[in-house]
Amino acid sequence: MADERMDADTPVFAIAAAAELAGMHPQTLRQYDRIGLVVPGRTRGGSRRYSLRNIEQLREVAQLSGEGMSLPAIARLLDLEDENRALRRRVSDLEHELREERATRPGVRVFAAGTTGSVMAVPSGRRIRRPTEVVLWRPWLSGPEYTDDVATDPDDSRR
Q1: Mean of pLDDT values over 32-49
Q2: Which of 65, 85, 107, 135 has the fewest CB atoms within 10 Å, counting from its CB?
Q3: Coiled-coil segments, which residues (predicted)?
């Protein structure tokens, strides 16, 4: 058996087990799947398989529905929660990439945009000579070790 890591999104529960864990009738789960409210994974044969996250969503649907929230409003809320989770995961990935990049390029402190819109790192102290490139970001550091010959606004009070 391959080394597979199970997480909250791994579909493992058949509909009867998921219904019992969520405290619902299996027909309710089928209806929620049909309307796209809580959509489980599927086996090759087409059987529904629910993850722990699906069961958590089913419980949340039951609670919100019991409090009077409509199913379309609940669907929107679940979509926003999924989007939020994906965005947090993306931010975490980008932060990790940034830490790795900083570790491998400690002298890079200025970034510029190329003519195609690509972002490139420019080592600190290097002057950008081509008028087709624009400096996008440079940390506002003081001290002689951080001064370079990149043009700056003399009236800029941040320096």
Answers
A1: 93
A2: 107
A3: 77-104
